[in-house]
Amino acid sequence: MTTSPAPTWDVIVIGAGIGGLVTASQLAAKGAKVLVLERYLIPGGSGGSFKREGYTFDVGASMIFGFGEKGHTNLLTRALADVGQHCATVPDPAQLEYHLPGGLNVAVDRDYERFLADLTALFPHEAQGIRAFYDACWQVFRCLDAMPLLSLEDPAYLAKVFFRAPLACLGLARWLPVNVGDVARKHISDPALLKFIDMECFCWSVMPADLTPMINAGMVFSDRHAGGINYPQGGVGVIAEKLVAGLESHGGAIRYKARVTKVVIDNGAAVGVQLASGETIRARRVVSNATRWDTFAGSPGSEGAVAQPLVDAAHTPAAETTWRRRYKPSPSFLSLHLGIDAAVVPEGFHCHHLLLERWEEMEAEQGVVFVSMPTLLDPGLAPAGRHILHSFTPSSMEPWQGLSPGAYRAKKQADADRLIERLEAILPGLKGAIRHREVGTPRSHRRFLGRMGGSYGPIPALRLPGLLPMPFNRTGITGLYAVGDSCFPGQGLNAVAFSGFACAHRIGADLGLNPWRLPA
User: Fold this and answer.
1) What is the DSSP letter of 331?
2) For the segment 17-42, what is each residue's pLDDT rounded down to a tens digit?
3) What is the DSSP letter of 140?
4) Fewer CB atoms < 10 Å away: N or C end of the chain?
């Protein structure tokens, strides 16, 4: 074993997901010496990209928020700019098109009034309620957009931001304990429209409206019209690549194929990490971009228990047991990455789609189908005359466990074929147009992303008061912080970027690195 004799780094960040990279690059910009340790070959995690036979595929979703030009919710724009980087983007004219039971089809237009008009045409008797509900979402968004989004754990920040925008702060506090379902039912009574609101939430939170915090909905349902959905040229992985470039230009470093197996704890404080190679690296602060389940030990045999978490049971804070009672892992995904003939794609086809044949299947295994075709926005991601089609559907780890190699291959083939048949409903002729095919399962997500069960992130195990129970970045161990979708405010690239800004600000306050003034 090789050991650094003294802390050679101010901060070590475990994992190069977007949350970890925003934390690292923000701290480097403040003057901290930062090292990112990534177990895989490329940065980004589920926000990365990979190349196959002339195609550039996004690992996860390509519906990207956070690239607006105004306000404070454009967190990806801001994160890149803070380290001297910029990402060219292509605006998407619609967030996505829904294909739902009973012929309920609607595209969410980038223009807010156009979207309201399209939805009202389907539910004319709910015209007033539709506007009241989505206008309430705008109230939340305006509160968020009026203030720089940093650490809610820093009293100095809270005092400064309250002095700058007192009404926005008070408004935000009002919405923190509220879930979407309560607001929707206050304004809307039509059961079909309420199911549509459920799906509006599920498409990014994988939860129905009753379990989705209003803070998150306010961000998503409004920012898609304010900053809009903007696709990064070159693929989603470019975001991570540019954050790494910004990190390095400010004196930080990243090591790939560096799997952390343990957070080193001395006298109750995190003082470094140990790698699978046996090497120990010391730092003044440690940040885990792993999931909460991969970071802390759980009860043996309990849901979410990991064989070798970063922190052993003896050092795991009692608060983590409470967190595990409140939250459970969401499913992983069955993913299809296809290269298809462009001729099969009709004129005017939207980049993003969501398909569900029966409402009863919304939360079922492989129920909802998500589709993205980023080459409609950036044709250079595929060879000439071809498109990328990325489709994914929620799938739990359990059906994929305990299979022989042959049975695993057969299930991959059968489940992928069934998914392609369902996609024929919106793309007739798809099966015969496929020229390249990659299939990922929950086991693939666990292997390549290092996430317990390949999970998309935590979802409430019971009805909770909005975002109030969601943990922030500090943990119960001195010197150890968490960042990513297991922290406030949850899942999604812009949300984990928020978490990264907050984590970097909290550590900056602890190390005395933060400027006195708030960002403009």
Assistant:
1) P
2) 999 999 999 999 999 999 999 999 99
3) H
4) C
